[in-house]
Automatic annotation (TrEMBL):
The keyword Hydrolase applies. Keywords: Hydrolase. It comes from the Bacteria. Pfam families: PAD_porph. InterPro entries: Peptidyl-Arg-deiminase_porph. GO terms for molecular function: agmatine deiminase activity; protein-arginine deiminase activity. The keyword Transferase does not apply. PANTHER family: AGMATINE DEIMINASE-RELATED (PTHR31377:SF0). This is Agmatine deiminase.
Length: 342
């Protein structure tokens, strides 16, 4: 039996970021040129700081796109694999440390509680292992568990939402105490903070924590705040803010709370509100990529992130096309801890 298990924080050293290229066979088809440009910019910015591990059903086509953008360099590893969609955060492997050695956990992914097809995405981590992508063990775990559903501080605290983890189509055989016990054993946790309030209209994930609240260094929480009483989110996000104020660190201290601004409401052609959130950022080696939305609040969001990560370069990436499929920047990406990539 292992003597020590630890779930690293996102801001710890990374080998690469996993992405899955959008295709015409997915829901991206109506805006494929726009979302491809987002991916090109995302890869360009990530490659300034670390490699990208990219999966795509048609590697030749993607390589052609990337070469045209000047991105086919040594910091890009491309694997041809079938995919359903592009949300690497939720099907990608989760990096852990077991007895001081890095490993990857492969949890079950069922399309956010059986909402969407996920048969190909659920096999990507094992297919990458068969292709020799990993330098460490890939361990299959018997839970449905998505990377966007939790936050870790690297020191034994996990932050999650009860709405997501306790949804009936994920792990219905487990009660909240049973699920918490399993997570503590798998990740070596000392406490689980369950957020019971907060949501984003248009979100398909049952309130993933990475759309609402993020753990940062120095016991800091950045979170979305809505100050408009006329907005449908107002009551839920006010209750969320109150619950965050009640959370305590393992040392018994309150967290430093840094609110993120609230972008103007965006709607699709059917009038459905889209889940624009600044909380859906990605931490890299030396940088933080923050989603922007051509919104007056973009600058304030970047400033908040600069205060939370004063030692890193803060870079905005326009994610307006991404929210058309109900996710944002963090949802598209999964960081791979140092020692995981072959």
């Amino acid at each position: 039996m292992p003597t020590a298990i630890r779930l690293p924080a996102e801001w710890e050293a990374q080998d690469a970021v996993l992405l899955a290229w959008p295709t015409a066979a997915s829901d991206w088809a109506p805006i494929l040129p726009q979302i491809e440009q987002v991916f090109i910019e995302l890869i360009r910015q990530i490659n300034r700081f670390e490699p990208v591990l990219l999966v795509a059903p048609d590697a030749a086509l993607v390589r052609q796109r990337l070469q045209a953008a000047g991105l086919d360099g040594p910091r890009l590893q491309l694997y041809e694999l079938p995919t359903n969609d592009t949300w690497a955060r939720d099907f990608g492997p989760i990096s852990v440390e077991i007895d001081g050695r890095v490993a990857l956990y492969d949890f079950g992914f069922n399309g956010w509680g059986l909402k969407f097809a996920a048969d190909q995405d659920n096999q990507i981590n094992r297919r990458l292992a068969a292709a020799g992508a990993w330098a460490c063990d890939l361990q299959c775990q018997p839970l449905i568990f998505e990377g966007g559903s939790f936050e870790s501080d690297g020191a034994g605290t996990l932050l999650t939402t009860s709405t997501c983890l306790l949804s009936p189509n994920r792990n219905p055989h487990l009660s909240r105490p049973q699920l918490e016990t399993q997570l503590c054993q798998l990740f070596g946790l000392r406490q689980v903070l369950w957020l019971d309030h907060g949501y984003l209209a248009g979100d398909d994930t049952d309130a993933h924590i990475d759309t609402l609240v993020r753990l940062c260094p120095d016991d800091t929480l950045v979170y979305v705040r809505c100050n408009d009483p006329a907005d449908e989110h107002y009551a839920a996000l006010q209750a969320m803010e109150q619950q965050l104020a009640s959370f305590r660190t393992l040392a018994g201290a309150p967290y430093r709370l840094r609110p993120l601004p609230w972008p103007a409401a965006r709607f699709d052609e059917d009038g459905q509100r889209l889940p624009a959130t600044y909380a859906n950022y990605l931490v890299l080696n030396g940088a933080v990529l923050v989603p922007t939305y051509d919104d007056p609040a973009d600058g304030e969001a970047l400033a908040v992130m600069a205060s939370a990560y004063p030692d890193r370069t803060i870079i905005g990436v326009n994610c307006l096309p991404v929210i058309w499929q109900h996710g944002s920047l963090h949802c598209l990406t999964m960081q791979l801890a140092k020692g995981t990539l072959a």
